[in-house]
Amino acid sequence: MTNISGNLTKFNTILAIDTSCDDTSVAVVRRNEVLANVISSQVEEHKEWGGVVPGLAKKLHEERIDGVVEMALKEAEKKLAGENLIIDAVAVTKGPGLAIALEVGIRKAQELAIDLNVPLIPVDHMEGHLFSSLIGTESSGTIGDIDRKFPALGVLVSGGHTELIKVDVVGEYKLLGETLDDAIGEAFDKVAKTLGLGYPGGPIVAKLAEKGDSSAFNFPISMKNSGDLNLSYSGLKTAVLYKVRELAGQSRVQERKNTASWEKGIKPKLEGESEAEGLVNQTIADICASFQIAAIETLMGKIRKAVQLYEFRSILLGGGVAQNILLQEKLRELAANENIELFIPGEKGLFMDNAAMIGFAGWLEQFIKVPRILKEKGEIEALDRDPGMRIAK
After folding, report:
1. pTM of this prediction?
2. Rounded mean pLDDT of the chain?
């Protein structure tokens, strides 16, 4: 990095940091173009605990953050192929997330912004997910191109969030509906735990569902007649638990059978005190498929209702569960029927927690009515984490 542009009113190239949970990520973003997006995953370190351990996450962030910053800058310089890398601002996730994890990224971002003499942009992590589907699209290189996509329906689906957001313009959001209990990603993970499938379980459940019969079990679609756009997943999760216990209890009086052959890495691995001990592979796949269709239809029912109630030009899908193939298929069908543009993140790294989406959201920040851009050293040093941050009310 050879040139630094200083405290500009407008900026294009952003160094971004995300340490909201268990991934240490640093990116360099130029408008809607990703020059580098480095993600250091902690999945293997947390796997033995069956979930994220906050203290361990913080320790690993602290050990890795400097190296990840260096790697991102090198990747960006390599992509520019001789062109000078000029950092105009630093962006960082302020919240929501694990408090002690967030503070590691914020501290590093403060250090970099002061050393480089550039503004610091605090970003809502969920705002990053909201706009992640627009990164790299040909029609989002300018703020004018992006404005033409509004009003939009933001569909945020992850391990901690399930929210439907009305996006009037960048920075102006209205919460239309949200889960009243478990998030959809959390429900996937809890079903995986019930079945003894390991961690992280959501992707395993989705993969096994491809081999299952989604009509094998009739799991409930919660709140379909509630009249509002809120969702619930606790009842579905509990229904799966009771069904697994029922089936496992029946199977224990029989000799266990292995009736299916599985691809390498896909065969269910029953770990510890699995509720599903004794169930054959095909039954587990059928449970996964039946659960998945109920979980996705719970969400799709509310999305269809939102599209009927409001006029949207586009749907913006973001969050880890956005990778779910069934959800994508259902949304494509809806978008085609309603003549609405659908935007889905264009590459795997943009679905998970990542710094590229934070950098892009940071670039958009300069175009909102009251930008939250910190330029003075004192206000940069005063930035604090906000683990309970909400994108909309």
Report:
1. 0.88
2. 88
